[in-house]
Amino acid sequence: MSHIAKIYTDRDTTLDPLKGKKIAVLGYGSQGRAWALNLRDSGLHVTVGLEREGKSWEQAKADGFDPKKTEDAVKDADVVIFLVPDMAQRLVYREKVQPYIRDGMDIVFAHGFNIHYRLIEPPSNVDVYMVAPKGPGPIVREFYVKGGGVPVLVAVHQNHSGKAMEKALAIAKALGGTRAGAIETTFKEETETDLIGEQTILVGGVMELMKAAFETLVEMGYQPEVAYFETINELKMIVDLIYDKGFMGMLKAVSDTAKYGGFTVGKQVINNETRKRLREAAEKVRSGKFAEEWIEEYGRGSPTLQKGMEDMDKSLEEQTGRRLKEIIERGKPKS
Ligand SMILES: NC(=O)c1ccc[n+]([C@@H]2O[C@H](COP(=O)([O-])OP(=O)(O)OC[C@H]3O[C@@H](n4cnc5c(N)ncnc54)[C@H](O)[C@@H]3O)[C@@H](O)[C@H]2O)c1
Ligand SMILES: CC(C)(O)[C@@H](O)C(=O)O
Ligand SMILES: [Mg+2]
Ligand SMILES: [Mg+2]
């Protein structure tokens, strides 16, 4: 199969389609704060819309915004960006956005969940598009401030104006995304790959593999501090090498003993059985069954999510990490 993705960079993009437009950023959390700050620093007109006064409201004010109630930010806006949690978007849309939709408004997402699974179905007289950063919100901000940018995916669901992709690319540019690159995709591809990625590797897979390795060493009687540095702290350095220089660059930096053990034992730990389960998890996303399960869990007050957070907070690995924080901080490069 030969396919080359369409990738846009700063050279192919302009902020013009959004200049002078009023942009409402709904939510001021992980992505909301990064988007509001990056878009404002790129010269766009941003208003932060929030449900109520509280932590986000205070943070937005501290960052120099004058936050408004969601509906007030929306009433005035040309472009409405959904950066509240995925599960909260449907209600915010129904109660605070839908009543104020005007012809030619833009509805924008950072992840396709609510459109792909039809939880939000905007009318046909608006543009619906997505700019999905391939990285956590604080990194989207950090890279931008340091002159770089986190790569993004861009997609158009509804192109009422005929200019939806140009506007998606303008947001991608203002976010810093096109300093790296913006890959064109669909809501379906972004939604499914994002969920599969975060479950099987980025969040779920990495966390469980680190925990399993740490707990195995501790069960065998090794010191938790030694186990922490071995199975959790050093992973960043290995991943950074892969990030900077690819797998070959990483392999060249580790010993032959590590290469040989890695090639042989890695495949025994992550074996065909693991790949089968990875595929099953991916199919569960693709069939919509995961979305159904998550919506149901959220409807019950997210008990599993809350327990996961509580258990992790109390875990020996997290406690050990906290105890070693001073040492880890002291060792970090200073520039
Ligand atoms: N977190 C990430 O790094 C990341 C990366 C890529 C895409 N996304 C997508 O960005 C969007 C926002 O995710 P996030 O992780 O930044 O969100 P978040 O959990 O950090 O959002 C918190 C913000 O939403 C507000 N909020 C919380 N509950 C709410 C409710 N019930 N109703 C209205 N507002 C509420 C909070 O006050 C806060 O301002 C999602 O679509 C997500 O999939 C997130
Ligand atoms: C940062 C991630 C994991 O890539 C994002 O997809 C999220 O949902 O937070
Ligand atoms: Mg995600
Ligand atoms: Mg993601």
Give the second-level CATH assignment, the architecture of the largest domain: 3-Layer(aba) Sandwich
Indicate the proportion of strand residues: 5-15%
Biggest sheet overview:
9 strands, mixed
Helical fraction equals 55-70%
DSSP helical segment count: 16
Which ligands occur here? nicotinamide-adenine-dinucleotide, (2R)-2,3-dihydroxy-3-methylbutanoic acid, magnesium ion
Distance between the termini: 44 Å
Question: How much is the radius of gyration in Å?
Answer: 22 Å
Q: What top-tier CATH class of the largest domain fits best?
A: Alpha Beta
Looking at CATH, which topology of the largest domain would you report? Rossmann fold
Mean pLDDT: 97
Number of strands: 9
Number of domains: 2
Summarize the structure.
The protein has 335 residues and is α/β, with parallel strands linked by helices. It has helices at residues 30-41, 55-62, 70-75, 86-97, 113-116, 137-145, 164-175, 177-180, 187-202, 204-219, 224-253, 256-269, 272-286, 289-299, 303-314, 316-331; strands at residues 7-8, 22-26, 45-50, 68-69, 79-82, 106-109, 127-133, 152-158, 182-184. Strand 5, helix 4 and strand 6 form a beta-alpha-beta unit.
